[in-house]
Protein: Alginate lyase
Organism: Hydrobacter penzbergensis
Amino acid sequence: MKQLKKYFVQFFILLVTAAAFSDNVLGQRFIHPGILHSKADLERMRNAIMHKQEPVWSGYSLFIKDEASQYTYRMQGPLETVGRNPGVSGMYDNDANAAHQNAIMWTITGDKRYANKSIEIINAWSVTLKSITGRDAVLMAGLGPFKMLNAAEIIRYTNAGWKADDIAKTEKHFKTVIYPVIKNYAPFANGNWDAAAMKTCMAIGVFCNDRQIFEDALRYYTHGWGNGRLQNYVVSEKGQIQESGRDQPHSQLGIGMLAECCAIAWNQGLDLYGYSNNLLLKGFEYVAKYNLGNDDIPFSEWLDRTGKYHHFKISDKGRGQLRPLYEQVFAHYVVLKGLNAPYIEQAVEKIRPEGAGRPGADHPGYGTLFFAGTSASNKREITTTPAGLIAQGFNNEVKLSWIATTDDRATYTIKRSDRKTGPFKIITTGISATDFADKTVKRGRQYYYTVIAVNKNGNSRGAFVQPVVAGLPDDWIQMDIGNIRPGNTYYNGVQYSIESFGKGIGNDGDAFHYTCFPVKEKATLIFRIQPQPSSQFSVIGIMLREDSTAKSPFVSLTLYPGNSGQIEEPSWHTQLETRATTSGKIERLGERKTLTAPAITFGRLTGNYWLKLERNKEVVTASVSYDGVNWQEVSTAITPSISKNALMGISIASGIDNSTNVRVDKIIVK
């Protein structure tokens, strides 16, 4: 114990020095260490272990027995390529666990042998691993690398002797090998995939000091289009989970990883835990209650965002297998915030001390060591910058929302500019909520917004600037064709983000959201489809149309997810179709067979694809492209029944009873 105290004193001096260095050099852009473990967290663990405080001591006693917590751990990799096949993924995950756990042991003991082991593992994989492959690549890149990032963050900011050149190589590795696999998240899958991608993107943002990556992940957490968005995963105020009808291990896996996102945000001064009126807490209470054996659980039929997973009752598969992820949320919601969470508390009591987060690298695990011992005195009152700013433009207003800072007493100041670089002018102050509607905008005009937090310590820096257009550009309009629930199109000056219901075009009448503009005899529209719509049955088209009635004459070049016989791998292809007369039958004029890479991988629209429609009086020509340079003609149509004054635009349908979100950019009108 004397030796441990000696190491503690030495390590504390090093930690303070390193923290001061990072604050000065980085200008507090990010707080370091600041992924799962903050400086305060590391000190709390170390102090509790020095004094053998329970339950942390019991958690530590379990932790030090793990093979992955030993500086004698024998590395199993590295490899140039990894995938989710068990033999290969296990090698990476095991090494990532060891890197993380040795980094923790270094901070607790001050013994450089642990730091050196962690550095050895991080360096080896960073210079060797070149690709992550396979249909489960997103999940592979979202799990083990999260552990590796936590190890790297701790080692980097605790003066462990990690060389600057090696740090630079590791940053490059995470941004060029890991990030490209997960940057578009996983809206084609169950929500736990999205959650894995989000938490690792956030971690990359913090470790690499890349605000764009970090902010994008925050915005996806609150306003993403996949199942991993908080409101798409905790699908009711009663706490039902998107995967509750699948099985209980995956339900816990997904919500556990969403909680890890919250821990990262909290360490950066952001209260993601409290987002949407503590919705995450409700989800945790739901899964804990059911897995503790309670049957009085409400469940509603649920169709997910992809359209692939439709559940009618709660699943008892894997019921009762409590995963080691409850200590974290118990420490935050119950101990720190003083909220009532009886089922989370029971789960903690049942499995304390929490063990390893296996299989693989599914969870950090060891929550009793990592999170128990938190006290209400740990509340944050530093002046941190708001984040996750969302700006949605309508004709007469722009609606803003953002993630609150960790200071409950902070207020917010909204600033706006006509230019991204400013100057920014204050439009309102003293906002206590985390949303605001700016009604002083003009339709079709581009704006840029930022938000500042204000507390007793002063003003924060401005939030990451968000561009938005109030409504659509001049001449553009939007409408719902057919009898469907309303959709919407948002424009930020570069990209259209389109939310739509409907089944698309059909002989019984069309049903889709149409974002369009008036045209005469000659017109061309080109746009690029961005990766990964939410509904895997999305119908994405470029259309010339007589009018807004449901059975109007049209010509449409449409991207369809054809039926391949495998729901997970649709056959994406394009067709040129026409309805020559009002209420007439639809005729197929041409087709481009199944898309391939780089637009499609494993049946998923994971790359860009371009559509072009050209009108020259009565002749309409449709073309497609993988790069916007090399075009392939699909077919032509003769359209005598479409009048000189018509509509041309973007048609989006979900193809399911839920909505879809599709994003297009590189929009060219001639």
